[in-house]
Design brief:
The protein is mainly beta. It has one helix at residues 2-25; strands at 35-41, 46-50, 56-61, 66-72, 76-81, 84-89, 106-112, 115-123, 128-130, 134-142, 147-152, 156-160, 165-169, 176-180, 185-189, 195-200, 205-208, 215-216, 219-223, 228-234, 238-243. Residues 1-31 and 94-100 have low confidence and may be disordered.
């Protein structure tokens, strides 16, 4: 009897291996976890993006409509209405035994060169990269993802727990706020800009060659007259402040 049971187990294992191999060879693309799409959307003044781990790139371009492309392991829900675009991850999770590579996963949003009321991005582990977009308010929150804002002209609010923040100004907007709880950050100022910076920290420091010496602990900086106020809080990391070369 024991021999019969062992033979049945062996046959079962062989059949499982054969069926698994056949499923892999003849699988349909719809069984793979990769979800991707590309679309154009009407111009809206409010943009909300709320994702878990997907990288987000916001790129200015010379067209009249907003263009979006993405690749992810779950589809994205994209809603348009009331002058607002909202993007979230779908609750319709795709279950598959075939794992896909996440190397090229990401959300790419191409924005016409217009003035927006508010752009808001929230992500857990994804990185957020923003080019020169003109918004009355630009708000970005990440858990462990890095934040990079280039040629910034918007009133900006940047928050991360452990990620790295890089804020590169084209024009400094007064009352811009930067908060990093455990990561490092850098602020790049335009040449000849007049900035005051309210720096707060618990155990971190601010490093800059615009004045002599490093400052440990909270301090109010003044660069070239201190015209526009920036709020910067780096609780444990290092904040580096420099001028664009």
């Amino acid at each position: 009897m024991e021999k019969i049971v062992n033979r049945l187990l062996i046959v079962s294992l062989v059949m499982a291996a054969v069926l698994g191999g056949a499923a892999f060879l003849f699988r349909n693309a719809e069984h793979d976890p990769i979800q991707e799409d590309e679309m154009t959307l009407p111009l809206c003044e409010y943009i909300d993006i709320d994702l878990l781990r997907l990288d987000v790139d916001i790129i200015p371009y010379d067209e009249e409509k907003i263009r979006i492309s993405y690749k992810n392991d779950v589809p994205l829900d994209i809603e348009v209405g009331d002058n607002r675009i909202s993007i979230t991850e779908s609750d319709e999770f795709v279950i598959s035994i075939f794992a896909g590579s996440t190397a090229e996963y990401g959300l790419y949003m191409y924005l016409p060169r217009e003035i927006y009321r508010e752009i808001s991005v929230t992500t857990g582990t994804g990185n957020v990269n923003v080019g020169r977009v003109d918004s009355e308010r630009l708000s970005i929150i990440t858990g462990s993802g890095d934040i990079s804002c280039r040629d910034t002209v918007s009133l900006t609010y940047l928050t991360t727990t452990t990620g790295f923040i890089s804020l590169d100004f084209e024009t400094v907007a007064a009352e811009t706020t930067l908060l990093s709880r455990a990561g490092d950050a850098e602020i790049i100022l335009p040449p000849n800009s007049s900035v005051a910076m309210d720096f707060e920290t618990d155990t971190g420091e601010c490093v800059t060659d615009l004045i002599s010496g490093n400052i440990y602990g909270s301090f109010m900086y003044s660069f070239n007259g201190g015209d526009k106020l920036i709020h910067a809080t780096v609780e444990k990391g290092t904040l580096t402040v420099r001028r664009r070369e």
